[in-house]
């Protein structure tokens, strides 16, 4: 699991909203309201630069969030932030429900398949990819080949141990190279 002080990307600035510097955020998880309760965020620029910024206000707008950052007072300045990533500290996340986890906590976990008592390492979780029908784990392959795509379903995944950084699969059925 990530340390509480690690900044986790939650959204990208899609575009300005209005003329007073409000920003429309494209959320990575459209159902998340976590950004509505923050006093500050970290904005990460495409060149790798970062800046902590206070939030003057945030509100829900359909599947997006409209946010006003301190010192962003006009449309032109808001336009300059298009494509910037908005991050929140991991410690601000509410505890997950039993049996659930956050994607940021599983990234980097080892992925092994245990078929008939024989364990084989596939690689490490690179990302969680949401698709309309199911979520998939993208696994960077140990053999340096194409990444594996692992359906995140009970028929394939035996267990996810966040503390140990380990995902164990029952089977390779349904697991494909990307």
Q: How would you describe the overall organization of this protein?
A:
The chain contains two helices and 13 strands, in the order βββββαβαβββββββ. The relative contact order is 0.16. The chain has helices at residues 75-79, 103-106, and strands at residues 7-17, 22-27, 40-44, 50-61, 64-69, 85-89, 110-115, 118-130, 135-141, 148-151, 157-161, 166-169, 176-177. A hairpin with a 4-residue loop joins strand 1 and strand 2. Helix content is 5%, strand content 48%. The longest helix has 5 residues, at 75-79. The model has no long low-confidence stretch (mean pLDDT 93). It is elongated. It folds into two domains: 7-92, Elongation Factor Tu (Ef-tu), domain 3; 103-177, PRC-barrel domain (SH3 type barrels), CATH 2.30.30. A seven-stranded mixed sheet has the order 11-12-7-8-9-10-13. A six-stranded antiparallel beta barrel has the order 1-2-5-4-3-6. With 178 residues, the protein is mainly beta.
């Amino acid at each position: 699991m990530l340390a509480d002080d690690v900044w986790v990307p939650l959204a990208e600035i899609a575009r300005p909203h209005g003329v007073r510097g409000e920003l429309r955020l494209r959320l990575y998880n459209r159902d998340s309201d976590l950004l509505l309760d923050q006093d500050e965020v970290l904005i990460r620029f495409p060149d790798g630069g970062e800046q902590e910024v206070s939030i003057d206000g945030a509100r829900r707008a359909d599947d997006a969030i409209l946010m006003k950052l301190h010192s962003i007072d006009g449309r032109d300045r808001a336009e300059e932030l298009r494509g910037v990533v908005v991050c929140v500290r991991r410690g601000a996340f509410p505890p997950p429900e039993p049996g659930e986890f956050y994607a940021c906590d599983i990234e980097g976990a080892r992925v092994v398949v245990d078929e008939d008592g024989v364990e084989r390492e596939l690689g490490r979780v690179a990302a969680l990819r949401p698709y309309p029908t199911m979520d998939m784990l993208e696994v960077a392959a140990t053999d340096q080949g194409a990444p594996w795509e692992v359906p995140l379903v009970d028929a394939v995944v035996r267990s996810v141990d966040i503390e140990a950084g380990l995902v164990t699969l029952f089977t390779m059925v349904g697991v494909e190279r990307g």
